[in-house]
Design brief:
Number of helices: 15
Low-confidence stretches: none
Shape: globular
Number of domains: 1
Strand content: under 5%
Helix content: over 70%
Mean pLDDT: 84
Largest sheet: none
Number of strands: 0
Length: 317
């Protein structure tokens, strides 16, 4: 799997480089260089620290999900598994994070059908948390709210279906009548039971709260990036721009949201009447401090985990 990861990273780096060239030309290369050169790099450690806060809170949520599903593994092993998955942030919709399920299966014999729904629950609660932040920001600055309401309505409806066992069981029964799905019904039923546990009641509320705290930390980091460029926005305005752009990237299902997130970030900054060069510079800096920072950390931990548990993994990764 490491070879596949390297291939994905090279492809994503190539896409990121192409996006960088296009945005640089759009913003005027000379002005963009000047804007980046004047950035107050003393705030960069704080921005990176806030990104780390995001990862740590999401790790707490990962641990909470494992406990909810009664999956017990050593804390250090769990931390390594979670951090390794950050290397998969450049896969479409981050679904490459299913690497966590492969680790759990190889190291602790946890069926993939039992643990994989955690990845789905993480993505759903991340999107709901980001949309919640975006809604608060949109209200505070008077941005268009209809699109956000539609996104929220769809996700809430989906969670409501999962929470209502009778409705979900009827849907699963209907799926069982489809010939090519019938052989997967046991896996689907197991996956539903796990999803039902994580997307209802107290587990859902706690995971949403943790998601809000995690993503708000990166919103604050984005505010510091803007201040480092001499751009002054209110916290809720910056939070709306960052959270909504992250959602756009996630629903695009492009690797790491590449292209979609950058375009949304720069576009919303321009709508906020931020100069073109500063808008593109802020986009480059925050993406380097969040997405690519996570990929670098994740790749390093994944490499360590492969060496540390080479025998148990037995080539599966």
């Amino acid at each position: 799997m490491l070879k596949k990861l390297r291939a994905k990273l090279f492809i994503s780096l190539a896409i990121a480089a192409l996006i960088g060239v296009i945005f640089s030309l759009y913003a005027n290369t000379g002005q963009l260089k000047e804007s980046i050169a004047t950035f107050d790099y003393e705030v960069l450690p704080l921005v990176l620290f806030l990104s780390l806060v995001n990862y740590m809170i999401r790790f707490v949520r990962w641990e909470y999900y494992l406990k909810a599903l009664q999956i017990r593994i050593p804390r250090g092993e769990s931390f390594g598994i979670f951090m390794s998955s950050l290397s998969m942030s450049v896969t479409p919709g981050k679904m490459g994070e299913v690497v966590k399920s492969y680790f759990l299966k190889s190291l602790s014999s946890v069926p993939i059908s039992k643990s994989a729904p955690i990845i789905v629950a993480e993505r759903i609660t991340d999107l709901l948390a980001l949309l919640g932040i975006a809604m608060v920001g949109a209200y505070s600055i008077g941005y268009e709210k209809k699109i956000i309401f539609i996104f929220v309505a769809v996700f809430v409806a989906g969670i409501a279906v999962i929470a209502h066992r009778a409705t979900s069981q009827r849907i699963i029964a209907l799926l069982g009548r489809i010939s090519f799905l019938s052989k997967w019904m046991k896996l689907i039923e197991n996956a539903y039971e796990s999803s039902h546990t994580m997307l209802t009641g107290r587990v859902l509320l706690v995971s949403l709260l943790l998601g809000l705290l995690a993503w708000f930390s990166e919103c604050v980091g984005f505010l510091f990036v803007l201040s480092g460029l001499g751009v002054h926005l209110k916290l809720l305005s910056a939070s709306f721009i960052y959270s909504f752009s992250t959602v756009v990237g996630a629903v695009s299902f492009l690797p790491g949201g590449l292209g979609a997130t950058e375009t949304s970030l720069a576009g919303l900054l321009l709508l906020a009447k931020i100069p073109k060069a500063a808008s593109v510079a802020a986009t480059f800096i925050i993406r380097a401090s969040t997405l690519w920072f996570a990929v670098i950390i994740g790749a390093a931990v994944l490499s360590y985990m492969q060496r540390r548990y080479a025998t148990a993994l037995n080539g599966n990764l």
